[in-house]
Each structure stands twice: as structure tokens, then as C-alpha cells.
């Protein structure tokens, strides 16, 4: 395992942030209660693992909670291995678990998902439309039902 960190004197590339953007999209699709707001994170680095996907590590500004994702937006949790040959291992986990481990429930406002406007059918008219009275006053137009 090799850890790469972004240089301090270089502009950040979108490719460095793409995994977090994809995880944010997945959080919305899965309707997680705590969103992944990309602008609230900083890039800590990328762990290169031989034969397995690289894992990108993003830290939340408010609590330093780490969110670990790969290039496809799949999430991981870090499991320390004291006394092992490496500091630890990354285990794939559901995005809900990764968001919880990062402590986003402590620092991000909970969101709720309502019905989408496309799913709401327009109300059926109860009777034929009655003639309307239109009154224009300057830039306002009032429409009154008869």
C-alpha cells in the first residue's frame, strides 16, 4: 500500500474529486439521510493497492471524519491491523456505513426526500370550467372565477 497526497502548490484536478462526486450522487440515488456535500471535504490522498482499486480518502472539514471511496464511487472502511505487515486494510462496505463511520450525522443537516413532481398527477377537474373574469391593473392580471 502506497499513500499519495496532493501537492500543496498545485491546482486540484477534477479527476481527484470524481470519486467523491460519484459517491455524492450515489447517496442521493440511495436517498441517504445525510448527504455528501463535496465542498465540505478536503482531499487527504489516495492509497494505491496492488491488484485492487485505489482508494481515495476525503476528510470532512468539520469533524475530520474520513470517507473512503474508489474511482467507481464504491465505499470502504479502514480496519487497522496492529502488529500486522501493514497499518490496516480497506474493506468494501455499503455507502450508508461509510457515511456513518465518517460521522456525517454529527455535522451535516439531515435531508428528507419527498415525492418528485413527476410522480404527482395533476388533479382531475370536478366540473367543466366556468367562464373567468379577467381584470388588468398595471402589471398585475387578476383572474376571478365566476
Topology of helices and strands:
Elements: E1 2-4, H1 14-29, E2 41-48, E3 55-60, E4 66-70, E5 75-80, E6 88-93, H2 95-101, H3 104-107, E7 132-137, E8 140-145
Antiparallel strand pairs: 1-2, 2-3, 3-4, 4-5, 5-6, 7-8
What would you say about this model in short?
The chain has three helices and eight strands; from the N terminus they run βαβββββααββ. By secondary structure, it is an alpha+beta fold.
Account of the protein in words:
The protein is an alpha+beta fold and 146 residues long. The strands form two sheets. The chain has a six-stranded antiparallel sheet with strand order 1-2-3-4-5-6. The chain has a two-stranded antiparallel sheet with strand order 7-8. The longest helix has 16 residues. The model has no long low-confidence stretch (mean pLDDT 85).
Amino acid at each position: 500500500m502506497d499513500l499519495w497526497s496532493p501537492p500543496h502548490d498545485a491546482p486540484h484536478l477534477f479527476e481527484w474529486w470524481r470519486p467523491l462526486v460519484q459517491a455524492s450522487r450515489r447517496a442521493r440515488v440511495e436517498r441517504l439521510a445525510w448527504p455528501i456535500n463535496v465542498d465540505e471535504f478536503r482531499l487527504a490522498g489516495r492509497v494505491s493497492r496492488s491488484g485492487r482499486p485505489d482508494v481515495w480518502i476525503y476528510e470532512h472539514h468539520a469533524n475530520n471524519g474520513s470517507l473512503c471511496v474508489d474511482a467507481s464511487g464504491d465505499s470502504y472502511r479502514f480496519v487497522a491491523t496492529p502488529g500486522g505487515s501493514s497499518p490496516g486494510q480497506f474493506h468494501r462496505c455499503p455507502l450508508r456505513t461509510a457515511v456513518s463511520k465518517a460521522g456525517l450525522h454529527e455535522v451535516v443537516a439531515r435531508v428528507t426526500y419527498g415525492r418528485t413532481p413527476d410522480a404527482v398527477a395533476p388533479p382531475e377537474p370536478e366540473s367543466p370550467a366556468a367562464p373567468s373574469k379577467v381584470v388588468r391593473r398595471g402589471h398585475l392580471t387578476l383572474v376571478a372565477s365566476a
